[in-house]
Specification:
The structure is a single chain. By secondary structure, the chain is mostly helical. The protein has one domain. Helix 2 crosses helix 11 and helix 6 runs antiparallel to helix 9. It is found in: Cell membrane.
Amino acid sequence: MERTNLKKVLINAVKIIISIGLLYFVFKKIPFREVAGLWSTVSIPYVLAAAVFFLASQVLSTKRLEFYLEANHFRLSFRSNLELYFLGMFYNFFIPGGIGGDAYKVYLLNKKFGWSVKKITSALFNDRLSGLLAICVLILLSSGFLFDLKWLPVIVIAIISGVFLTLMITKKWFPAYQSVFYTTLACSIAIQGLQVICFVLLLKSLGVDGHFAIYTVTFLGSSILSLISFAGIGVREVLFLQASKYFDFDPAVSVSASLLFTVITAFFSFFGVFFQLRKLHLHLKEN
């Protein structure tokens, strides 16, 4: 156990170092005072609207996990699931060197209800897998606005192939979730769509009125690559900086919007501290 915890600490330490290094690289190219100057001009109503859409995506994420838990006949109440979700966000964002948010969920649910660690872990894994598939689908759909129509059949085939492959993986290794595959995929697409809207609203708060397709592709791509950094910090900014070399948009604006997205994520992740300070009461769904 100590060796496992040490490994996790080292991995998270490396991620934090990567994030710091990437941000250093970005701010060597774009002075932070330029970003700060842009923040002083943001439209607050747009930022507040973006926060609402981000919160909606997190609430819907809670519902998606509920589908996976119920596939194992684990009937956790929605309120308990929501509190557990924000507690996991808090652990992931503010305690990077400690136990991960997902691992803490597994620990609490196993301790409280005696549910199988293997089944809870598989539910969380498929929850992540569904989100990854949705990101890839939306990247391909958004890419359709960047390429000629002749590439449309290729994009459609790629989407169908990705969905089919993931369904086959689910059937073979996780048959319990086959019945909720399309429901959770629809949830995942809606979740990522809400986060894209959140980011677009942040761009509009900074005066951006175009190039939303490439912004969307870059933003979603950073969600996949965020695995190599802490909470995706640094990766998003570098991707936007590099994309600005090939597409006509201001890198300072995109980096500013990206950092605003991180601030919103941190704000809602902090909600989990309230459930950490008071004893979390988990309840089953009433019949």
